[in-house]
Automatic annotation (TrEMBL):
GO molecular function: DNA binding
Domain HTH cro/C1-type: 152-194
Keywords: DNA-binding
A Pfam family annotated for this UniProt entry: HTH_3
Name of the featured protein: DNA-binding helix-turn-helix protein
Top-rank taxon, per record: Bacteria
Lineage of the species this protein comes from: Bacteria, Bacillati, Bacillota, Bacilli, Lactobacillales
SUPFAM superfamilies according to UniProt: lambda repressor-like DNA-binding domains
Keyword DNA-binding among UniProt keywords: yes
UniProt organism field: Streptococcus cristatus ATCC 51100
């Protein structure tokens, strides 16, 4: 009676002959075995381990041509060294039944994405001309190939029938083939394709390899600025640097506009508090919140000219912000008896008067509509702790210019290719942050840093060595890594590739 190895080997050799036309004799010749080796194995001769491993490796090399075949996989699992067997067994047991549908869905989405080819418009897919060019080089042109499935089979080095089986959910990929799919899609994890639903639209960034290199360049820029900031702090030159910032007018932030933004946040959170506290404390009240509020603020409106100087400076704003945050804690903890006192708190009611005066509305009816709209617009917004606004801007201490300089530098550098409106939300400035303004400001900031480092010679030998190497590269990125420059190169350089440019720059980072 044949043992399991002999039976499995006989069956395997038949599969190889039928599927790829290779005979046992051809296998022994190719592997350098004696001509009767496989025959002897089938008849009970125990194979030497070295020859068995060589044979298994050969069988595995045929797997792509044969496709997912249970008998072939069983043979490899049964007779491959234990550590690899366990890995494949674990993969099969864990994934096949549980994730078969996810794989099928994702694989079909991948094929649909590839079938769409380049039939998209940049405006619809929200991609730049640079990304469109990169996709053109990575995706197949359906007019130049027979079919997407045939092209994909060639890329993955599997048969067309295998692609069809995966697409129809007939078979599940081996671990090796799954890894090929992950590599093809530039996925970081070897399990993403079977664990996570990937919509068709989400395949697009996977084929933009430049995004990964862009991330590395961004990390370098951030780390460079952080490194210099820490050096200045360590060398205790913050005061000198802050003076240099102010002398050279290197801040875009308008302190008064920044305060206006903080004041707006305080107005919003104050009105939301009053509305929520009213609804909790005065549930049986016959009038609405708006009517109640206007009754309460009436006495303060008689003297609204006295409010001109209130809530104007940082100290006043910080004080009222603290009180609003404390009142919200009482509200959240359902301390109703205390809540009623805060509902009548004069400073909160004066804030409403201040807000209405700022809006300069013509009648009380318009004011009521404005408050009603204001409550509706802000009620479901998750407001941050108001004190965070002051921590970020550092209005209270001598380091404001220092902190704000590095925040602005980082924001301008990382978001220069975003819309001006987006940047203006990050940086409260009275200027319009157009491309030229941003470029000039970045150059001025870099020059200030360079001059300061040169004049104060901060850092030890290792730190200065890094600065000497990293500063020229940072300056280079400052000048060239922006969408305006890349678009010019795209139009003027025939063989331009953003991916190639990013790879060259990343190689320079690795050399530091």
């Amino acid at each position: 009676m044949k043992n399991i190895f002999e039976e499995k080997l006989s069956s395997l050799l038949k599969i190889i002959k039928c599927e790829v036309g290779i005979t046992a004799k051809q296998i022994t010749t190719e592997l350098g075995f004696s001509k009767n080796t496989l025959t002897n194995w089938k008849n009970g001769t125990i194979p030497k381990k070295s020859k068995l491993i060589k044979f298994l490796s050969y069988v595995e090399s045929l797997q792509d041509r044969i496709g997912d075949n249970e008998e072939l996989e069983d043979f490899l699992i049964l007779f491959t060294p234990d550590d690899e067997i366990e890995q494949q067994k674990k993969y099969n047991k864990t994934n096949i039944q549980k994730n078969k549908e996810t794989f099928k869905s994702n694989f079909n989405n991948l094929i649909d994405f590839l079938n769409s080819g380049l039939n998209f418009h940049s405006s619809i897919y929200n991609i730049t001309d640079l990304q469109k060019q990169e996709l053109e080089s990575n995706l197949p042109n359906k007019y130049e190939i027979d079919s997407i499935q045939k092209w994909l089979a060639s890329e993955l080095k599997v048969s067309e029938s295998q692609i069809s089986n995966w697409k129809n959910g007939k078979t599940f990929p081996t671990l090796k083939n799954l890894q090929k799919i992950h590599n093809f899609c530039n996925l970081q994890s070897d399990t993403t394709f079977i664990l996570v639903d990937i919509p068709k639209k989400d395949f697009r960034p996977l084929f933009l390899k430049s995004l990964e290199y862009e991330r590395h360049l961004t990390e370098f820029k951030q780390n460079y600025l952080k490194f210099i900031k820490e050096l200045i702090i360590k060398s205790q030159h913050i005061g000198d640097f802050s003076s240099a910032i102010e002398q050279n007018h290197c801040l875009l932030t308008n302190k008064y506009k920044a305060l206006d933004n903080i004041r707006d946040e305080i107005f919003a959170k104050n009105i939301i508090f009053l509305n929520k506290a009213f609804n909790k404390c005065l549930t049986n009240n016959s009038i609405s919140f708006i009517e109640w509020l206007f009754q309460k603020i009436a006495k303060y409106r008689k003297f609204d000219s006295l409010l001109n100087e209130e809530f104007e400076d940082v100290k006043d704003l910080k004080d009222i912000a603290d009180k609003i945050e404390y009142a919200f804690k009482i509200l959240d903890n359902n301390r109703t008896s205390e809540l009623e006192k805060w509902l009548e708190f004069s400073s909160f009611l004066k804030l409403v008067v201040k807000y209405l005066k700022q809006e300069e509305l013509c009648s009380e009816e318009e004011e009521k509509e404005e408050i009603k709209k204001y409550v509706n617009d802000h009620l479901n917004i998750e407001h941050d702790n108001l004190n965070n606004l002051f921590i970020e801007l550092h209005f209270e201490n001598d380091y404001y210019a220092f902190e704000q300089f590095f925040k602005e530098f980082r924001d301008l550098l990382l978001y220069r290719d975003y819309s001006p409106k987006y940047l203006e939300n990050l940086i409260p400035t009275s200027l319009s942050l157009e491309t030229d303004v941003i470029s000039q400001q970045l150059q001025a900031n870099f020059q200030l840093l360079s001059d300061f480092i040169e004049n104060y010679i901060i850092g030890n030998e290792v730190e200065l060595s890094y600065l000497n190497l990293a500063t020229p590269l940072f300056k280079k990125l400052l000048n060239i890594d922006n969408i305006q420059n890349w678009n010019i190169m795209l139009k003027t350089k025939l063989d331009f590739s953003l991916l190639d440019e990013y790879q060259k720059l990343y190689a320079e980072i690795l050399e530091l």
